[in-house]
């Protein structure tokens, strides 16, 4: 990635100049594809949403979930929905994930629900950083896209041939969707305005089935070989006035690199439930890219 700025967009709510992650936009087809589990699940059963909005959450194990910290801060969730079942959040269980080396807070948060999650057994966290070129499956609850591509000229006037991609936004609704991509690189200690996080990133190319993050994808899982490798946080767009609510070829999706936090995550999910503690307790070609990022 070249020439990056610190302007942020977060994937769950849209701001002027800052922005949060969405349901994945998938290249090709008419935009309605990939709303049921891929072959082998690839993490589909582990990605849910908060009850009040489509903002994404990902189940880990032992009744613990992980999501973006900015979802807690902006949406203040009290319950989540996973595979059609609603679970109340234990408000005392919120646990901020931190960088082991620097001690700084990441844009990651964990929480436990008050009743047992019984339809999935839990997922493993990768213990080492994914290599560039690794195939991943990205799953989130973001906005849907238009059925056909839109093209723009160098000044972002529609009808040109400089940029091509898709419009998306509230007019098209939201869906749980998966898409494929490959890891393009990594960066350490990226500040998206809600925490300093080690991240991986993908590029959005004109390849059928390739995924790009959109609003409400934040908190959604990125899986490699059915192991949880990342949590989507924000996206990178072109600096030259790319319109809001668009996914353009050459954009990027950034996800927390969970290998940096795997020990802390595994230690957290090992914490026993309150009932265990006391049985009496009731429970773009040629374009300078990316100078603008936004959380989804």
List keywords for this structure.
7-stranded antiparallel β-sheet; Thrombin, subunit H; disordered N terminus; globular; 296 residues; 6-stranded antiparallel beta barrel; mainly beta; 3 helices
Write the layout of secondary structure elements.
Layout: E1 7-9, E2 25-26, E3 47-50, E4 56-61, E5 64-67, H1 69-75, E6 79-82, E7 85-88, E8 95-98, E9 105-112, E10 135-140, E11 150-152, E12 163-167, E13 177-191, E14 196-203, E15 211-212, E16 221-224, E17 227-237, E18 246-248, E19 252-257, H2 262-269, H3 274-277, E20 292-295
Q: What's this, in brief?
A:
The protein has helices at residues 69-75, 262-269, 274-277; strands spanning 7-9, 25-26, 47-50, 56-61, 64-67, 79-82, 85-88, 95-98, 105-112, 135-140, 150-152, 163-167, 177-191, 196-203, 211-212, 221-224, 227-237, 246-248, 252-257, 292-295. It is mainly β.
Detailed description of the structure:
The structure is a single chain. The protein is mainly beta. The chain has one domain: Thrombin, subunit H (Beta Barrel), CATH 2.40.10. 6% of the residues lie in helices and 36% in strands. It contains 3 helices and 20 strands. The strands form 4 sheets. The chain has a 7-stranded antiparallel sheet with strand order 7-6-3-4-5-9-8, sandwiched between helices. Strands 10-13-14-19-17-16 form a 6-stranded antiparallel barrel. A 3-stranded antiparallel sheet has the order 11-12-18, with no helix packed on it. Strand 4 and strand 5 form a beta hairpin. The two termini are 19 Å apart. The relative contact order is 0.27. The N terminus is likely disordered.
